[in-house]
Write a structure and sequence with these properties.
This protein is an alpha+beta fold. It has 2 domains: 70 residues, lambda repressor-like DNA-binding domains (434 Repressor (Amino-terminal Domain)), CATH 1.10.260.40; 98 residues, Jelly Rolls (Sandwich), CATH 2.60.120. Helix content is 23%, strand content 35%. The protein contains 5 helices and 8 strands; from the N terminus they run αααααββββββββ. Strands 1, 2, 3, 4, 5, 6, 7 and 8 form an 8-stranded antiparallel beta sheet that branches. β5 and β6 form a beta hairpin. The protein is globular and about 45 Å long.
């Protein structure tokens, strides 16, 4: 990565261990709750493996933390420029995500992603904390949320409670879109306070 920015693997290794410890969970218990093998979790905490969207979202759901609490490397400054070509892609069954920015605003937290729905497979999620906002730029996208289905195209916007099971399917691929995940600072599935995670990495 440019300018010494840690890789997704490096950031996940530090943040996953911190979040798991803050929740008082052993690797075995986290494995049981997430359905991710203990050996895989150990590898992720050591900075190895190849984390996917499905893995990261499952850990977010079980640990009840924002996605950026697992992936973010915070940088400050009056002018922030993130070059998409320089951002590591987090790949899923049917979606490529580039985490661009975490924004802490008052009592809210926002995450901005460049999202490409590829069209080779649907991208399904069992749900995770937050509200999901998507603005389609090119292509045509089918969004299914808790039994409801809507098709959206260029310039269209859709939002929903991300705790609900949901699925993205490209009808006209690839679908280029901006994904915004919105959280309240205190939002967790069980209302517990947000764990304090290290910011100096």
């Amino acid at each position: 990565m440019e300018d010494g920015t840690p890789s997704i693997r490096d950031m996940l290794a530090v943040n996953l261990r911190a979040a798991r410890t803050a929740r008082g969970l052993s690797l075995s218990e986290l494995s049981r709750r997430s359905g991710i093998g203990k050996a895989t979790l150990s590898q992720l905490e050591s900075g190895g493996g190849n984390p996917t969207i499905e893995t990261v979202f499952s850990l977010s759901r079980v640990l009840e933390v924002a996605i950026s609490d697992l992936l973010d490397h915070r940088a400050g400054g009056a002018l922030t420029v993130v070059r998409g070509a320089d951002v590591e892609v987090l790949r899923g069954e049917g979606v490529d995500l580039r985490p661009l920015r975490r924004i802490d605003a008052g009592d809210g937290v926002f995450e901005v992603y460049d999202q490409v729905v590829r069209g080779d497979a649907p991208q399904q999620s069992q749900g995770h904390v937050g509200i999901e906002h998507t603005v389609v730029q090119t292509g045509s996208l089918r969004v299914e949320v808790a039994g409801r289905t809507v098709d959206v195209g260029p310039g269209d916007y859709v939002a929903f409670d991300a705790c609900e099971p949901h699925c993205y399917t490209a009808l006209e691929a690839p679908v280029h879109s901006v994904l915004l995940l919105q959280y309240r600072a205190d939002e967790r599935l069980d209302g517990r306070p947000h764990p304090v995670l290290p910011t100096g990495r």
